[in-house]
Each structure stands twice: as C-alpha cells, then as structure tokens.
Amino acid sequence: MPWVLAGAGLAAVLAAVGLVWRGGDDAQAPSPVAASAKATQSVGARGGGGGAAAAPSGVEEAEAAERRFSDQTCFPELARFNDGVTLETFRDWSASLLASKDPLVRDYLKAKLAELIGDDAKKAGQVVDWARDAQGAEFQVLLSGLRESDAVQKPQVAARLLEAGLDKGLSIERRAGMLSALDTQKHLTPDAMDRLADFARDPASTEAGWAATRTLGRVMARESENLGDASPYLDRLITIATDAPDEQIRHLAQTAPLHNSPVLDAKATARFERILRSEGNEDGRDAAAQVLAMSSDKEHVLETFTDAFQREQSVCVRWALFRFSARVAGRDALPVMANMATVDPRFQPLYGIFETLYAQGNVDFIRVWNELPDQNPFGCMDRHQ
C-alpha cells in the first residue's frame, strides 16, 4: 500500500483506514488547539525543559499546538501535519509521530520528507547535517527520505553523503547508513568508486564497508540497465572480491556481477580465475564459478573448470563447476562433465540426467536447470537458508 500521503492522496489513505472526518460537506477537522487538548500526551519542540510551566493562552496556545502531535492519535494528526509542515519544521513536528512506532506513519514521513526536499540541493544538505546526530527511527527516516528525493542525484549532495560516510568521527553504523543512501545514484564518478573500494578493503570498515560494496554493485546494475559502461564498477568490485580482509564483504563483491550478468573480458576472466583458485571460503569459489560462466572465452573457462574440479575438495563447489559447465557451453560441455563424473562417481547419475535432457533437444541452460528432478542433490543450497 503506497504511502505518499500528500494532498488528495492523504484523504484517500485516511478514508481507506476509516479515519476520514465524520460528516458531509460541513464536516470539519478538529482545530489544532482542540486536537492538542484531547491528546493524552503532548510533545513540544525538541529540547523542552523539565519543570512545570504556566499554561499558555490565546495566540501562544495556538502556536504551541501547531508543533504538537499526539503519539496516541497519530492517524488523525497526519492531516494537520501534512497541511502545515515545512522542511524547517519537519524535524520537530515529526518527533511525536515517530514515537507512535507505527511503520505506516514512518513510511509516510519518508515520502513527505522526499517531497519537501524535492530537487533542492541546499535542503538535501540540511538533511545530511541533521542525520549526522539523529538517533534511531529519526535517522532512518531522514536518510530514507533523502535517498528517495530528486536532490540526492545532485553531485554536491552525493559528495556530502560520501564525505559523511567516510568520516572517521562518526560511528560505523551511522557511516553505513550514509553510504547506503548513495545506492540510488544513477552514476558514480571514478573518484567516488575508488574511495568506496578503498574503504571496503579497510579492515576496520566492517558493516560500513559492506554498505560501500553494496552501493557499488547497485549503481553498477543501474548503469548497466541504462546501457552505460559497467566495467569501471566491475573492476573495483573484483578488487574488493580479491583483497578485502572481511569474508562477508568479499563474498558480496564476488556475487555482485550476478545481478547484471556482464560478459567478462580476458582481464576480468583471469581475475575471477584467481578467486576460484585462492578464495578460502567455498561460497566465494561457488560464486566465482557462476560468474566465470559469463566469460566470453568459453573454451578457456571449460579448461579452468576441469582443472579446478580435480583440485577441489568441496562437493558443493564441484556441483557448481559441474552444472555451470553446462551454462558455459551447453551440450558441447558434455565431454567435460563426463570427465568430472569419472573423477567423482557421485556425479555419474547427474551426468546421465544432463545427457538425456540435451538429447531431448533442450538448448537453453535455464530450461535444462528447471527440468532437473533435483536441483540440490548434495544439500548445498540448505546452507543459505
């Protein structure tokens, strides 16, 4: 259910949940003062004092009520919030609505913030500054609204997010959020790609390095969809996949090419061969086999798979080498697969199945894969569940 609750859209959503104001043409929403009086708890501007104070009256009471939104009656409050909020008042006004802990309210606040930012780089910069010290749900709303805004595509906004994400003065968790907010970019500059890749290879980067790697992969996939050049991203990702000390970061980089299926040139093929030979984690070797199946040099990859199969000790990686040989060359891979079944007799029944499927005229690997009676004969996929 989309929660872009602005203008007429807000009324439609409130109607859907049965919260439209009761009555016909003469029905009116409760005034700000009345709504504030009905609230079981009022939340004023951030940083209020702790002592008792005299009750405001007249204009002061109305102005105070404009900033108060009850966390007990949050849905009726959204209409009043939606009509009056500006970017300058967003942080104070949204505080009590966030206190409701309602995920739908948070979705609305993210969408409303993106609308308020629009295509204005200055407003987006203000939100980046707020996010540097925001906590919990507010931090998530600020960055989510920012990443969904048009302004996040502005070079100066992307640069500020990158600087914040690489700022050693911020916590790793906060830096991870900043770098994740970059993943909607349509393009990254070579300098930004280099800095993200270098950071991901830093032993201290941990989850922020993982976010940097994911951002590189997602922007690469988007650039590829838009018929752009994905090779600069792939080059940095292979560097991370080979050199990052963190196993999870390496594996994320190793699997990133699977989301846009690039055809590997000779250089990229050689680098993934290195991963297949040297990666200590068998999931990484499994991923390398799958990526190598997209190489332009089919004959060379089959030779690589034949050699790797003989040296490989993991049956799961051997299963990857076996089945992805069929993806590399179709029925022309059957002699290679027959040799693998000779090396490891556990694969002889599987070879018979592949041979039968190709004899029936199947050509496409996906069709062959879908026709297999058991796609998980060694229980390898259970490790990822």
Summary, kept brief:
The protein is mainly α and 385 residues long.
Please explain how this structure is put together.
The chain has 385 residues and is mainly alpha-helical. Among the domains are: 204-260; 264-384, no CATH class. The chain has 21 helices and no strands. It has helices spanning 8-16, 32-38, 58-66, 74-84, 87-98, 103-117, 121-131, 136-147, 155-165, 172-180, 190-200, 206-225, 231-243, 247-255, 266-278, 282-292, 298-311, 315-329, 334-343, 348-359, 365-371. Helix 5 runs antiparallel to helix 6, helix 9 (155-165) packs antiparallel against helix 10 (172-180) and helix 11 packs parallel to helix 13. The relative contact order is 0.05. The model is unreliable at 1-56 (pLDDT under 50). InterPro entries: Lipovitellin_superhlx_dom. This is HEAT repeat domain-containing protein.
Features:
21 helices; elongated; 385 residues; Lipovitellin_superhlx_dom; mainly alpha; HEAT repeat domain-containing protein
